[in-house]
Write a structure and sequence with these properties.
Length: 271
Amino acid sequence: MTLEVHSLASGSSGNAMLARGRHGDLLIDCGMTRSFLESALAAAGSDPRRLRAVVLTHEHTDHARGALAMARKYHIPIAGSQGTLDAVIAGADFASYVLQPLRPTTIDEFSVVGYPVSHDAREPVALSITANKVQICYAVDLGQPADHLMAACASASLVVLESNHDLGRLVRGPYGPDLKERILGRQGHLSNQDAARVIAEVSPADRPVQYWLAHLSAVNNSPRAAIRVTRAALRAAGKSHCAVEVALRDRPSLRWSSDNHWWQPRLSLDW
């Protein structure tokens, strides 16, 4: 196993991904309870004692809820931007890694780079993680994708990208005007259409890439709608060799391994 990634949960109720290396693992976002995470790690064949760090994109509860509990019980460092660490740790005595913008931080066998994004948090980042010459990107709660992040996604073998809402469903849906404005603003979330445009643009023409659509809204989106829009964009760009799946909201779902880029259980879309 060179690098393996598991989606443990992905949505507004909580987000967590696991990156498994040869000698240790990273927990990427930690927005579920400790008990959920312990069970999900076991289901993925991991153990909290293998964790080398909890790496956070930002401090919002659905991304950081379980970070302190995991760090405290298992003596795991927390990694994030200075703004994220200030908000989450708040002066407590925890080991930490500060992710400097656009500069790699070495955590055991992993190289982690934080890419500033425009979401409405203290100092949010998207993440590029490299281990054993294999790169993945994790980009949720983006606001607007910046050029440096697009370049990182273009060189990755797995890209986890938010596809939060269907634009029409959001506009016609039950959310109030203020919440709709926040989601649609420059510090909000990518729509299915936004995510599809990013993926079609960054997808290489000469090698396969796996895309996981993440952080889908339970009210304003569906896995079927998100996949349909992105696959259509890839077909139009002549890049149908790249695969697309959806990370489920409240339970472990997808697994990817760099040893086999195309291993992927097919998931029912009748949800």
